[in-house]
Amino acid sequence: MPAGRRTKFLTLDQPGGPVPDGAGGYSEAWAPLDPPSTWGSLDALTGADERLTADTITAGATHAISIPYHPGVTVHTRLSYTDPDRGPRGFQIVGLRDPDESRRELVIVAAEMIP
User: What angle do CA 108, 110, 114 make, to 5 degrees?
Assistant: First the structure.
């Protein structure tokens, strides 16, 4: 993908250790990947686009996100960015692939997290 199409500055986080919530329980903490951010493209998916990950139906996927290859990105990674019109947006990865296995690009199928 041409770098000029990557117009979203994305933050990449991974699950960290449990953090006490003050009520006797724990909540999940997030820690930045290394490097913690990258430029990417964000494309909304339609129903016809559901099958982007190697014959796996990804129900609930809302967006395809393309970023330069990052070895730390997994299905547990969370992506976020601030849209100038809509404010903060977050995405949970439901599938990802390295299209030509060259470690140059990742195509991510993600579900937008509603705050």
Answer: 155
Domain count, the chain: 1
- Answer whether residue 105 shows pLDDT above 70: yes
The β-bridge relationship of strands 78-83 and 63-68 is unpaired
Rg (CA), the chain: 15
Q: Which residues contact 17 (CB under 8 A, 6 or more apart)?
A: 29
pLDDT tens digits, one per residue of 42-95: 999 876 445 555 545 455 678 999 999 999 999 999 999 999 999 999 999 999
Q: How many angstroms separate the CA atoms of 27 and 19, rounded?
A: 5
Query: Which residues, listed in sequence order, are joined to residue 95 by a DSSP beta bridge?
Result: 109
Give the helix, strand, coil percentages of the chain, each rounded to 5.
Answer: 5, 55, 35
Question: Residue 103's domain spans which residues?
Answer: 3-113
3-state secondary structure of 4: helix
Report the CATH number that the domain containing residue 107 is assigned in CATH.
2.40.10.270
